[in-house]
Amino acid sequence: MFPRFVLLSFAFALVALVGFSDAAQEKDKKKRTGTVVGELKSRKDAPNKINVLVEILAAGEEKARQYRVGYDQKAKGPIPDVLKAVKAANIGDRVQIDWIEGEGYNITAFQVLTKKDEKKDDKK
């Protein structure tokens, strides 16, 4: 009786472990995303000289976070229109970005907010 109990306990533990492993893999597939509105604090070329790294200070945060332009499979590099918009923005501009987590925070959409846009955000 005792060996059967041990065997059943071991089998149950193995099934539970496999279930937790599947849940962890499922979580890895779902990447975090978000939208940030804040002030563009800095911009510099990435070490590969192709992409750009920016620091954005969001409202309510004490320290700016670093973001880079996301990868476009078709272009085999940074998303071209986002890269162009990031390079055209001035330090100190108020910007809105959409990001996805990958190897760091990757920008998928970038917009410089005008005074008119800021008033719309304040009303929401």
Write a brief structural summary:
The protein has three helices and seven strands; from the N terminus they run H-E-E-E-E-E-H-E-E-H. With 124 residues, the protein is of the alpha+beta class.
Describe the structure in your own words:
- By secondary structure, the chain is of the alpha+beta class.
- The chain has 2 domains: 1-30; 33-123, Nucleic acid-binding proteins (OB fold (Dihydrolipoamide Acetyltransferase, E2P)), CATH 2.40.50.
- The chain is built from 3 helices and 7 strands; from the N terminus they run αβββββαββα.
- The protein has helices at residues 2-29, 80-88, 115-123; strands at 33-45, 52-58, 65-69, 71-72, 77-78, 94-102, 104-112.
- The strands form 2 sheets. It has a 5-stranded mixed beta barrel with strand order 1-2-3-7-6. Strands 4-5 form a two-stranded antiparallel ribbon.
- Strand 6 and strand 7 (104-112) form a beta hairpin.
Descriptive keywords:
3 helices; 2 domains; 124 residues; two-stranded antiparallel ribbon; 38% strand; OB fold (Dihydrolipoamide Acetyltransferase, E2P); alpha+beta; 7 strands
Chart the SSEs and their pairings.
Blueprint: H1 2-29, E1 33-45, E2 52-58, E3 65-69, E4 71-72, E5 77-78, H2 80-88, E6 94-102, E7 104-112, H3 115-123
Parallel strand pairs: 3-7
Antiparallel strand pairs: 1-2, 1-6, 2-3, 4-5, 6-7
Strand content: 35-45%
Name the CATH class of the largest domain. Mainly Beta
List low-confidence stretches.
none
CATH architecture of the largest domain: Beta Barrel
Distance between the termini: 66 Å
Question: What best-fitting shape do the alpha-carbon axes yield?
Answer: globular
Name the CATH homologous superfamily of the largest domain.
Nucleic acid-binding proteins
Average of the residue pLDDT scores: 82
Enumerate the strands of the largest sheet in spatial order, edge to edge or round the barrel: 1-2-3-7-6
The count of helical stretches stands at 3
> How many strand units?
7
What is the CA-based Rg, rounded?
22 Å
User: How many domains in all?
Assistant: 2
What is the makeup of the main sheet?
Answer: 5 strands, mixed, barrel
Structural class: alpha+beta
- The secondary-structure element order is HEEEEEHEEH
Named CATH topology of the largest domain? OB fold (Dihydrolipoamide Acetyltransferase, E2P)
Helix content: 25-40%
